[in-house]
Amino acid sequence: MYKRVRKNSFISLLVILSMTACQHVPSKAFLRASSTPHSDRSLLTHQPFLLQSLSVKAHLAFTQNDESKAQTVLENNFTLQPSEWIYDLKAAVITVTPTKTYVLGHQDCRDYQARATVQGQVYRSRGTACRQQNGYWQVFTVQRGAS
Predict the structure, then answer these.
(1) Which of 10, 20, 75, 79 stands 20 to 30 A from 3 (CA)?
(2) Mean pLDDT, residues 14-23
(3) Which residues have C-beta within 8 Å of that of residue 9, sequence separation ≥ 6?
């Protein structure tokens, strides 16, 4: 009887784990199990906010509200689940999509893509952000090929 109960519990656990692995949830427990694509923290440089690169490319002056929306996307969206909103001043559509979730050092990190569509013209940027202790996603640029 004990072996049967133990076997059923093990099978139930395997089913739950396999179902959980199908979703890429940005929770701390899942992030700890993910692989780390960037091994050296010294290859990172600080950037001020999530939409800065897109702001420069699309000539848009994003507000704190836009930054807050981008922060919420990285905190809550599944990997490859986009969120979009209308940027009021130029009737642009802004889309932010987390593309990869992993742990770098002791920080939860996500790669993401941002896109602005302004009067039919599409501007794109990519970035890497890591969650700080205060819950804020801080943007970093990975210097590939650096010594």
Answers:
(1) 20
(2) 37
(3) none
User: Given strand 137-142, what is the order of strands in its sheet?
Assistant: 44-47, 137-142, 121-131, 107-118, 92-104, 83-87
pLDDT tens by residue, 20-79 = 333 343 443 333 333 334 343 334 444 568 999 999 999 999 989 999 999 999 999 999
List the one residue out of 1, 135, 141 whose CA is nearest residue 72: 135
> How many beta carbons lie within 10 A of that of residue 68, not counting itself?
11
Q: How many CB atoms lie within 10 A of CB 54?
A: 25
Closest Cα partner for 55 from 105, 103, 96? 96
Handedness of CA 40, 41, 46, 50 (dihedral sign): positive
CA distance 35 to 119: 39
Beta strands in 1-131 (DSSP E): 44-47, 83-87, 92-104, 107-118, 121-131
